Fold:
Amino acid sequence: MSSMTDEKINIGVKEFVCSIIPAGPVNIVFAANEHGLVGCGAIDVAALASFGYAAARIRPPEGQTSIATAEYLLRGNIKEANAPAEEKGVRVGMTGEEALAVLG
Structure:
């Protein structure tokens, strides 16, 4: 089984760590910093809201069945955002890159 990998993503002057965790036939993928997180469908944004942490889940880009890479995370569209993320300006339909830009 492959192991977890991390890579840095820079959105403007903001830096996020994108983690990719192999989980059987899929990857659990999310990009986070101290201000918020954008992740695949496995991320529980409601649970993170209970800690006041901004989080949003993303839908895979067209033609893909899952968020498998950092590139897919940036190109996909937000399908759900918790209240702390919405307060920072994250909206359903934004790309992952756009959401990270307002979270950072």
Remarks:
- The chain has a mean pLDDT of 95.
- The chain has one domain: 5-103.
- The helical segments are 45-49, 70-75, 83-87, 96-103.
